Amino acid sequence: MGVIGLVVLTIFSLWALIPSVFAPHTPDWIAYIGYENARLTGEQIRSLPHPPAFGDPFFAPLGTDSYGRGILTLLIYSSSTAMYIGLAAGLLSSLVGVPLGLISGFYGDTWIDETIQRFVDVMYGLPFLPLLIVLVAIRGQTTTNIIIGIAVTSWLNNCIVIRGETLSLRTRAYVESAKVAGASDLRIVFRHIMPHVLPLSFVYLAQDAAAAILTQAALAYLGLADFASLSWGIMLENIQAEGYIFTAWWWLLPPGLAIMLIATAFYFIGFSMEDVTNPQR
């Protein structure tokens, strides 16, 4: 599964880094007229969205949307948004959840642990998607705010799992030896315990990245996204708003399959990393 996930993720990464190499056109290309500032005729407008065409009267392997833009081009150029949101939200959730989990586990059964865990309980009691919608609505519908909103609500699993692992590791002999040698709590946590929980944190980073991509797609479908940027969720929202869900399959299926594939790739990588780092499971 890990190899399959890496192959799929590599393809999307190449699309995100060098989209012009893979896309047949640039995002401002329009069917029939290319890049010119000409007007579409009435007959041309009525033919949109156009099914896949391969050279006559234009080249669009996955067809066009209702504005005449190539679906394959939009699909490739939108991959950068998905990769950016997934990796950024996953990293942010790990940067919050892992340190808090380490501290909570190391000081288990103290007021520090209780404070962190009660805050986690409160956050768990809040509905995820409604809370995220409120945060994005308050701060604005930008990609950065969506990433922050996802990270605010996705670090909880990291914290809980890392805390449990730390509770187990803090009783190991090498930790007791470090205490006897006079090492500070900070050194013990980040020098002796953290390296042993990092593989587990990478597993949850991959899963958080997949969840972030799915969440952004859901927000875009609800109209809560940055419509100045290209994304697969916005492509789905456009086809829903234009009313072509049941008639333009070439417009509906590619972004949906892309979201499914990139989320699956992250999950496959996460599960494989867990198998490698925890073979006894």
From TrEMBL:
Gene3D superfamilies per record: MetI-like
PROSITE patterns per record: ABC_TM1
Keywords: Cell membrane, Membrane, Transmembrane, Transmembrane helix, Transport
GO cellular component labels: plasma membrane
Residues that span the membrane, as ranges: 82-107, 119-138, 144-162, 197-224, 244-271
Family, as annotated: Belongs to the binding-protein-dependent transport system permease family.
Protein name: ABC transporter permease
